[in-house]
Write a structure and sequence with these properties.
Layout: H1 21-42, H2 53-67, H3 73-86, H4 99-108, H5 114-127, H6 131-135, H7 139-146, H8 152-170, H9 178-182, H10 189-199, H11 210-218, H12 227-237, H13 243-256
Helix pairs in contact: 3-13, 4-5, 4-10, 7-8, 11-13
């Protein structure tokens, strides 16, 4: 050791002398940050992997399905517009000249075609021209005249019973109120709606026959299968001023194009807004539940 030069000694607290503690800590804190920056510049993070095409397509389909609303007012209005163009003068196909004749024809049309009913009623009304004539009959006497319409025993009882009540309770005139019509034997909401809408021009409900039942489900205006619930669904989505015309138009549409087993989708003006699962031809996606 060179004489006169003394090595540095540790302090009394046991720490060697050196750079100031503050400077040392600042340098230590900067060093990791700078190192991280250099590391990120030299080794950048990989870009996020794109979603697989299949997953992206599935997500898009789910999003589109979430936007689709079959009973949206815009879609319902488009259906009504096209029905007006197809059947501008649609009316009841049952031949009649009075409210009573319409009531009789509607009761006979249960489980029977309108064509068959129109073959039976002209002779029937010639034989029994008034409601009083029907009220004076025994049901068994009426059966042979309506046999070809099917369920003739029940129908004859309903017709005679309805005639008796119309004569005894309503002075021989078919009532114009829903609750009064429903009090007649053989009259349910379908028959009452036909009479009120066609003869009295009163929109108290929507006629739900086999055609309305089928087509309103195909058009996804209802998911129900019971006539009463279907009627309530249609009354919610169809404007009241269109209840009468809508039923007539759908019935004609069911006879001409939207058949039960082989609908003529290629000729249908509603085809591109109809997603029915049992379509025979389609330019749009189909929905399995819509049938």
């Amino acid at each position: 050791m060179v004489r006169g030069i003394m090595p540095r000694q540790a302090g009394r607290r046991g720490k060697a002398e050196g750079p100031a503690r503050g400077a040392q800590s600042r340098g230590a804190s900067r060093q990791p940050k700078e190192a991280r920056k250099l590391h990120e510049m030299r080794f950048p993070k990989p870009a996020a992997k794109p979603k697989p095409l299949k997953a992206a397509k599935s997500a898009a389909l789910k999003k589109a399905a979430g936007r689709y609303n079959p009973t949206a007012p815009e879609r319902v209005q488009e259906i009504l517009k096209r029905l007006d163009q197809l059947y501008p003068a649609a009316t009841c196909a049952l031949q009649h000249h009075s409210a009573w004749e319409l009531l009789v024809a509607t009761i006979l049309s249960a489980q029977c075609t309108d064509v068959r009913v129109n073959m039976v009623t002209p002779e029937l009304f010639k034989k029994y021209p008034t409601v009083q004539d029907f009220a004076a009959l025994n049901p068994e006497v009426l059966e042979p005249d309506i046999r070809s319409t099917g369920f003739f025993r029940n129908k004859s009882k309903s017709l005679v019973g309805a005639a008796k009540k119309v004569v005894s309770d309503f002075g021989g005139k078919v009532p114009e109120q829903m609750d009064q019509l429903l009090s007649l034997p053989g009259v349910a909401r379908k028959t009452a709606n036909v009479v009120l809408g066609t003869w009295f021009n009163q929109a108290e409900g929507v006629v739900v026959d086999t055609h309305v039942h089928r087509i309103s489900r195909r058009l996804e205006l209802t998911k129900n299968d019971e006539p009463g619930k279907i009627e309530q669904d249609l009354m919610r989505v169809i404007p009241r001023e269109k209840w009468i015309a809508f039923a007539h138009q759908i019935i004609w549409h069911g006879r001409k194009l939207c058949l039960a087993r082989s609908p003529k989708c290629v000729d249908c003006a509603l085809e591109n807004i109809c997603h029915a699962g049992d379509k025979t031809w389609s330019t749009v996606d189909v929905h399995k539940g819509a049938k």
